[in-house]
Specification:
Oligomer: single chain
Structural class: alpha+beta
Distance between the termini: 13 Å
Strand order of the largest sheet: 1-2-3-4-5
Number of helices: 4
Order of helices and strands: HHHEEEEEH
Radius of gyration: 14 Å
Strand content: 15-25%
Length: about 130
Amino acid sequence: MPDDADARSAADLVAEEWRFLLGGGHDLIDTATVRSAYAQPRLRGLFPLVGHGVVYFSGCTGMPAAHVGGQVHPRGADGRFRVRGPQGVGTLGRTETLEEAFALVAAHLPEECGPAVLGGAGRVRPRGAR
């Protein structure tokens, strides 16, 4: 299967998952959080995952996930959002708004981090690699 067909299929799966999360017909995550993540163009191309009110991202559409970027955690006791690194390791910062939080996540994506690819973590490759 050619790479462009893979990309279209992966893009379809990514778009479908974003539509599901943006639809808000579930209690996995607050829709405002999802909208703020989706507003970041680089994040929009990644596969969104949620758990315990946290949004995180994968560079692939299948499992195991290839965690990329950071995670935005709900407001803490200080009223700010905590932005953690990939797989929740380290702290990238704390922000006042969701928009700032996801901008911070997008800013910390590796340069080679491209749109999600089909399959699990073994399929992820740097942008431009064949």
